[in-house]
Amino acid sequence: MTYRALILIAAALSAAPAAAAQPQDPASAAAPGQIDFTYNRSQPTASAADRTALQAQGVKLRDIILATPALADPRGFALHTSVVLNRPVPSRAGESDVVVGSVLSRRINVTRSKPNAKGRYPGDGEGPALIFAVNKLEAALGYRSEAGHFTLPVERRERDGVLTFVRSGRDYTVITPPGLPAYQPVSIGDYVATSIEAFRADGAPQLATELQAAAAQLTPAQKAAPYCETNTGPATDLANRCRHASAKPIVRLNPRLAPGTGAASRARIIVLSVPQLGQVGDAQERRRLRQAAGQLDIAALQALLTP
Questions:
Q1: In this model, does residue 289 exceed pLDDT 50?
Q2: What angle do CA 205, 211, 213 make, to 5 degrees?
Q3: Which of 42, 53, 212, 226 is exposed most, by the fewest CB atoms within 10 A?
Q4: DSSP assignment string, the chain
């Protein structure tokens, strides 16, 4: 299955109008473009310390993206790429290393730039980016609580280790090994337990007491049911929160996808995002990146992951 099918699914979730592409002069449209490579601290080569097995998978992912027909021989546009290895901050010591990267596409304007020694031109102005990440679920799902909880989008599609949805003007795809979903629902009981601890730590014992009293009224089956975030209904109505129209399931990383720590971190999750066409920005380059994403082979990406 190619990424194209996933783009079509995501497009069905959003009706963002397409912006008209601005014309490009023939000479600029035919000019060969540069491909720049950067790594940690914007360096043109990765340091020995940053060349871990996980970073190597991030580089392979970047190269697969660049090998798509839409990007393989840049003409009329230039590409700037980055692959950055991030290690956990001290407060999250023991967590996995992650890789974040991007492929930025910018049009060429031969009247405002000069070619390099190989006759290839740099891009001009700003441009959109295809963003990718390895082992960074929050790159797709956003804020992660101290307890490791995420809010799952209500409108989403899932199939064989692939999760797609639209958020903040971008189409997101979360890729995991076949048969292993990226997340696991958080039960009402687990959420209450972590919330009570957090309330007490934050100096809000009254809230902790109220939540504990509400949880005491639940049956074991209700405590085992999934917990949802909602902006309607009382916070203590634990058993019915997922019935609200605004309900969003609370999830955590699937423990079966634990990637390890430090230099031993294994690639377990890939996140891709591409900009929607929308009304702002360079529509031509957005279409190009979406075309490249549509040419990706999901099975090839899953092959980068440790099953």
A1: yes
A2: 100
A3: 42
A4: -BHHHHHHHHHHH--PPPPPPPP--HHHHHSBB-EEEE-GGG-SS--GGG--HHHHHHHHHHHHHHTSTTTSS-BSEEEEEEEEEEPPPGGGTTSBPEEEEEEEEEE--TTS----TTSPBPP-S---EEEEEES-THHHH----TT-EEEPPSS-EEETTEEEEEETTEEEEEE-STT--SEEEPBHHHHHHHHHHHHHHTT-HHHHHHHHHHHHTS-HHHHHSBPEE-SSS-TT-GGGGGGSTT-EEEEEE-GGG---SBTT-----EEEEEE---SSS-HHHHHHHHHHHHT-BHHHHHTTS--
Give the confidence band of 236 by pLDDT, cuts at 50, 70, 90.
confident
Question: Over the stretch 115-124, which tens digit does the pLDDT of each residue have?
Answer: 999 999 999 9
Helices 188-201 and 205-216, packing angle to 10 deg: 160
Given a cut of 90, whether residue 231 has pLDDT beyond it is: no
In tens, the pLDDT along 182-224 reads: 999 999 999 999 989 888 888 888 988 998 999 999 999 999 9
- The whole-number pLDDT of residue 8 equals 47
